[in-house]
């Protein structure tokens, strides 16, 4: 009997495209389906990486949809914020030379997305798409800590959402901000 660990089958690379693993860790009734998430993610990645000559053939993303308590616990553990949040992004490690790349893991809280969509008078599907795209852009290295970075990221989000037929998610926010100024 051999005690040797099984070896990976590296003679067969994964198929090209997006490998998206969706885990519904909360009730899935009323939530977007895997086909929706795949379509949104493929569109987002195609537009976000259109000028990337070194783009791997296959991109892997794990998406976990959770309830508020799991989101709160992860947000507390990783960001020191003791409340649930809409999306958390955990970038993967890039291993050069491979024809695939694990971009990372996304955790989206269903109840926070639903609450925010209602509070902001947004179509729930549009807000789900926005949160997925927002998380994917974080996995690709985009950020919004500085105004210039935020503008670049928000412009890309708007462009992707428009391609998907969704409205500008920042329009109402900007109008409210302008009225308050």
Automatic annotation (TrEMBL):
<feature type="binding site">
    <location>
        <position position="134"/>
    </location>
    <ligand>
        <name>Zn(2+)</name>
    </ligand>
</feature>
<keyword id="KW-0698">rRNA processing</keyword>
<keyword id="KW-0479">Metal-binding</keyword>
<keyword id="KW-0255">Endonuclease</keyword>
<keyword id="KW-0378">Hydrolase</keyword>
<dbReference type="Pfam" id="PF02130">
    <property type="entry name" value="YbeY"/>
</dbReference>
<keyword id="KW-0690">Ribosome biogenesis</keyword>
<dbReference type="InterPro" id="IPR002036">
    <property type="entry name" value="YbeY"/>
</dbReference>
<dbReference type="InterPro" id="IPR020549">
    <property type="entry name" value="YbeY_CS"/>
</dbReference>
<protein>
    <recommendedName>
        <fullName>Endoribonuclease YbeY</fullName>
        <ecNumber>3.1.-.-</ecNumber>
    </recommendedName>
</protein>
<comment type="function">
    <text>Single strand-specific metallo-endoribonuclease involved in late-stage 70S ribosome quality control and in maturation of the 3' terminus of the 16S rRNA.</text>
</comment>
<feature type="binding site">
    <location>
        <position position="138"/>
    </location>
    <ligand>
        <name>Zn(2+)</name>
    </ligand>
</feature>
<feature type="binding site">
    <location>
        <position position="144"/>
    </location>
    <ligand>
        <name>Zn(2+)</name>
    </ligand>
</feature>
<comment type="similarity">
    <text>Belongs to the endoribonuclease YbeY family.</text>
</comment>
<keyword id="KW-0540">Nuclease</keyword>
<keyword id="KW-0862">Zinc</keyword>
<dbReference type="InterPro" id="IPR023091">
    <property type="entry name" value="MetalPrtase_cat_dom_sf_prd"/>
</dbReference>
<feature type="region of interest" description="Disordered">
    <location>
        <begin position="1"/>
        <end position="33"/>
    </location>
</feature>
<keyword id="KW-0963">Cytoplasm</keyword>
